[in-house]
Amino acid sequence: MKYNITIIITAIIIGLLLTILIIRRFVLSIIFSKEVKNLFAQSKSVSSKKFTYTQLVGLPEPVQRYFRLVLKDGQPYISYVRMTHDGQFKTGAGKGWINILGEQYATTEKPGFIWKGNTKMFIARDMYIGDKGRLVVSLFSVCNIVNGAGTAFDQGELLRWLGESVIYPTNLLPSKNSQWSAIDSHTAKFAFNYNGLYLFYVVTFNNAGEIIQLETKRYMDDDHLETWIIKPALYKEMNNVIVPTAFEVLWRLKTGDLSYAKFNMKKIEYDNPRRFE
Predict the structure, then answer these.
(1) Rounded (5°) CA angle 194-115-171
(2) 2-270 placed in CATH 1.10.260
(3) Of the residues 2, 86, 163, 201, which has the fewest C-beta atoms closer than 10 A?
(4) Where along the chain do its domains lie?
């Protein structure tokens, strides 16, 4: 009899925990949908602008090579982006790789993005919305174990948005906020000024014109800048634009490289400002 009661109590507790988990996942999904809607509402369309090869005059030679490869003459500027990916993620040095699925949304007229990564252990939401960066990590969808915001996150999340512009490359064309400067035949500097922040990437190109590395300085914590690198690869034509479909992201530390993200893009869609169903 006592044994049966124990089984019943255990089953009830497990059922309650599962119910809490399901409800919390549902709540997080609603929150995420609202954040996506808010992101898109803050940025206007720029698709009336068209790229022409005449815009490349005076740019460093490897930069011209890149734009001639990835964009067609007359390409409309990209306003909104939505994408999905799979891949692997590492939570820290000495940790193992875990599988991750992600969905992400971005805007270009007003810098912004939001990303959600799902693993068996946690759900992460990384974002730059309303000129503010934030990272929220929820363990088993139940409790937040990270809720980061502040100056370091503003800088870091805006850097992420800027580096991922290789997925929406009209965002890398010179503008009132951005400019290219020459370094050598395979390297150029891309500088971006926005909302009081000065950001830059040292960008490396291969002979074909593909961007194969973007290197900058990013806050690894609230006080320390470290070298941060994005490595795009496997360029393919999607939506009439040539974009990378694989990414590795790493920290280059004094102790060696710490690779922590390897993503493979599954879907990339432009100018459809709504969440995937």
Answers:
(1) 40
(2) no
(3) 2
(4) 2-270
